[in-house]
């Protein structure tokens, strides 16, 4: 069994919780309150700005040229998604300098940046993978199960469901598996732990948007 298969298996409980959470269910049905979606895309814009930098930092640490090129491409694509969000939801997204990261968003981005700064390369790679993989699975799940033809959030759903985004996800998984094969069993366990943690942080991110999370003080 490949490392990625073991990691996905280890995070199954979290993954199932994500598929069934109110944010995803209502997004799929097109009934998600607009203010909750706006909260999400505002926080996601902040997240993607920092996530793209994490991917670029990972790229320069990779030994193989093709791996470096892939992660630089991922970082570029992340910036493009952020740009599309701004264009698609103009008026909903303020200038990023005017937004404040929610506790859930800050927890997630700080964790990723800490992995880049202090964790072994293999572990940092595993930490960024859930953002790819879970979004792909959620996008496909919604496309397969939605029943409405006029979902106001269809553009978002189409961004992450289907083959185009899927090819990037497969490439990211393949790189992680290749690097995992070259390391020890103990390091692979550390990779899995980081993967599961970031899967949980994905749940927290969506849940915080659904709850319209604000700083209490």
Automatic annotation (TrEMBL):
InterPro entries with a match to the protein in the record: Haem_Oase-like_multi-hlx, Thiaminase-2/PQQC, Thiamine_Salvage_TenA
Signal peptide (UniProt feature, chain positions): none
GO CC, one annotated term: cytosol
Pfam families, A to Z: TENA_THI-4
Domain Thiaminase-2/PQQC positions: 8-211
Gene3D superfamilies for the chain: Heme oxygenase-like (1.20.910.10)
Superkingdom assignment: Bacteria
Protein name as catalogued: Thiaminase II
Originating species: Myroides albus
């Amino acid at each position: 069994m490949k490392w990625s298969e073991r990691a996905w298996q280890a995070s199954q409980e979290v993954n199932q919780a994500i598929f069934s959470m109110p944010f995803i269910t209502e997004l799929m049905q097109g009934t998600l309150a607009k203010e909750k979606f706006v909260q999400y895309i505002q926080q996601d814009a902040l997240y993607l700005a920092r996530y793209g930098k994490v991917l670029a930092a990972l790229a320069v640490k990779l030994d193989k040229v093709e791996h470096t090129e892939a992660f630089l491409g991922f970082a570029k694509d992340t910036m493009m998604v952020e740009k599309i969000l701004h264009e698609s939801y103009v008026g909903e997204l303020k200038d990023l300098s005017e937004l404040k990261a929610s506790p859930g968003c800050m927890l997630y981005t700080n964790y990723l940046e800490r992995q880049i700064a202090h964790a072994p390369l293999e572990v940092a790679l595993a930490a960024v993978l859930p953002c790819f993989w879970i979004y792909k699975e959620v996008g496909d799940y919604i496309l397969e199960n939605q029943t409405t033809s006029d979902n106001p959030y269809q553009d978002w759903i189409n961004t992450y469901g289907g083959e185009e985004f899927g090819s990037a996800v497969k490439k990211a998984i393949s790189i992680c598996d290749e690097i995992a094969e070259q390391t020890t069993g103990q390091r692979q366990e550390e990779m899995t732990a980081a993967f599961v943690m970031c899967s949980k942080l994905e749940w927290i991110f969506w849940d915080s948007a659904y709850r319209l999370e604000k700083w209490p003080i």
